[in-house]
């Protein structure tokens, strides 16, 4: 048989390639882009829903709006922390588009769409076509990823940064490494560590795997260039640590809030194992939205085996990254819980889909896909519901709009204590004002609630505004508040929205009711008595405490 020369084989190869594409695009190319479009549509749908800022978003927003670029490098107020690069991007969006929710959520939206495109590039490189489509489908509809793509916090940007850095892994190793590609990785990582705290974990895991691969392949000439590129982003991260992270690691309020996400101290094997046994399933539920956890764990083990067997570098990256996150939680360097580990969700989907690598038999792969669907039922159900009913938290903007539309001269306005950040934001954007704050706390002894409520008698009408996050430990049911406020007046108008949030108009009685106001303690506190406090004063003055004006 005659062997074709290179000159003869090139036209033949072109003809064969033309023959393959004459029938139109291949499903393995089209379907991933369709899934990118689906995920983008879900994120845009959530964005245009234009929900209110809830208290955590508002707490960060009033820092962004009330400070200069230089001021954002200093410790933030209202128990907040975020990467300086992200804060500057948010500040730029509000400078260009105004202080509204759409401007504050534009950066996370763009990050969410970019993450979809980059994840498509990653999974189509390292997984077979069916596995790539499975991983991308999970990524496209994941409730947490859709939600945080329109949350004015940094967690959606964390995901985009993590996927962007992981995308470099196969790109760096698929052929002999060049200095130009080393520099591209180093510069990208140097920028992203300013925009995302966990980007350093992902960049470090990629760097370690690439260094080991270069040593194994004997590419000694390019190794110094890659090490120099890693030194570039390492130096960038060190500067960012001094500017921002160092203060967060000494912030007692933040450390106290995330105490549950750190291993107990003093460190001990049994307590650390117990913490992991509690924390890992919690993360699987929120934010990963995985069901049937034993089955999910089994699929993840199979996926890791498949990666280590057939995609060794990617498997090593996943294991290194998981180890770094766990060690950070044990060392109290980074919380291992909730939205703080959202950046790891794409790699969880990649590992689930990688379970298909253990067999090339179509029947086995389809069975594995069916099992992946089973563990993804909570996420798929939530995604389907969100098309009609987008995700929301505390719709307090409507409550303030209701107050402004029905308020009369001389009316008083009081804000529930937990809702102060949202008030400060909507004071700036809607011009609302308030005369004080009310709270309810538990107490081991009875409280003089009557004396607190008597302060309301200076007004004939008082608006009570509630803005409680649905998963809050500090909020209290609106009905419990109204039961206590019934001692001083009666509700005559109300606006209720999801959250729960709302505005209730209280017609103040000239004389008190016969029974003194008593309420039970909040359910999250063991004390038997609920104590009301009413602190009067112009709440807008509190904005100066948050923004340093610099």
Q: Kindly estimate the percentage of residues that lie in beta strands according to DSSP.
A: 5-15%
Q: How is the biggest beta sheet arranged? A: 7 strands, mixed
How many structural domains in the coordinates? Answer: 2
Specify the helix fraction band.
55-70%
Separate helix tally: 24
Q: Compute the CA-based radius of gyration.
A: 27 Å
Spatial gap, N to C terminus: 80 Å
The mean pLDDT is 90
Number of strands: 7
Q: Biggest sheet, strands in spatial order?
A: 4-5-3-1-2-7-6
Shape descriptor: elongated
The helix/strand class is alpha/beta
Ranges where pLDDT stays below 50 over 5 or more residues in a row are 1-21
Descriptive report:
- By secondary structure, the chain is an alpha/beta fold.
- It folds into two domains: 363 residues, no CATH class; 151 residues, no CATH class.
- The protein is 59% helix and 9% strand.
- Strands 4-5-3-1-2-7-6 form a seven-stranded mixed sheet, sandwiched between helices.
- Strand 4 and strand 5 form a beta hairpin.
- The longest helix is centred in the middle third of the chain and has 27 residues.
Which features would summarize this protein structure in a list?
disordered N terminus, alpha/beta, 550 residues, 24 helices, 7-stranded mixed β-sheet
